Amino acid sequence: MTAGLVSPLRTVPGSIARPDYAATGSPSSRQSRAIRTDAEIEAMRVAGRVAAEALIEVGRHVAPGVTTDELDRIGHDAMVAAGSYPSTLNYRGYPKSLCTSVNEIVCHGIPDSRRLRDGDIVNVDVTAFIEGVHGDTSATFLVGDVDAASRALVDTTRRAMHAGISVVAPQARIRDIGRAIESVALPAGYSIVREFIGHGIGDQFHTSLQIPHYYDPRNDTVLLAGMTFTVEPMVNVGAAGVTMWDDGWTVATADGQRTAQFEHTLLVTEDGHELLTLPAEGPPAEVLFAPEPVGADTPTP
Ligand code: MF3
Ligand code: CO
Ligand code: CO
Hints:
It is built from five helices and 15 strands. By secondary structure, the chain is an alpha+beta fold.
């Protein structure tokens, strides 16, 4: 992958409420609470739904020949039409309304004039701010006809995310999430990125709560009902190492092999967890656009 041209900043109507960093690029460093109020949780269901529906809308337009800038416009327009601010816009100076990470790009790819090609895979990461809170979700989409190895990577990454989510409940520990993700990704021969991790989310885009996607026995923090955070594993075909482009944002695998990612925002409930980044109706993006099972295109004699 090489960088294309980045289009001018998109605007958000003045009637839409903005996060604290929208004008300056600098989020407040105030420590956010770990446990959400009932009102915040209700608002996060709204933000999560808006992000999930914008992600589906973008997914419908993923096809060979479409530029990632066009995907950004579609996601931007969907978020604005729903009354939300696209959280990434000017977050620490990030220039676009979502992230598009193609092939060997791990995360934070900047939408630009590059056209998607037949056989690419692209992660689209959408975060919406509305009612004072953020909802953050991503999926990796197939562009046209994708080779079996990449389809297997995408399928395993989605299953790894759900394995991590499945252990989330009060009294579980943060390290249980990474252990569950590893139990799916590592036996398949993949590696897991360590430099970028899941995060607490709520009135702030990223709170101090850290959710590694790998097992570390030191992560013994106990989960409590009312916590909200993301699970967003980045899974690599080759080695786990990453490198940063000189744009200061785009993260690529060090070995140039492909990588995939899925993300949901979730709430720890009294008896388990609730996915907050779901559409009002029907399945989420990762189900709607899931790859055909590997082997399904093998002609049967
Ligand atoms: N949505 C990304 C995440 O999952 C963060 C993107 S921040 C940006 O945490 F500035 F790179 F857009
Ligand atoms: Co995200
Ligand atoms: Co996130």
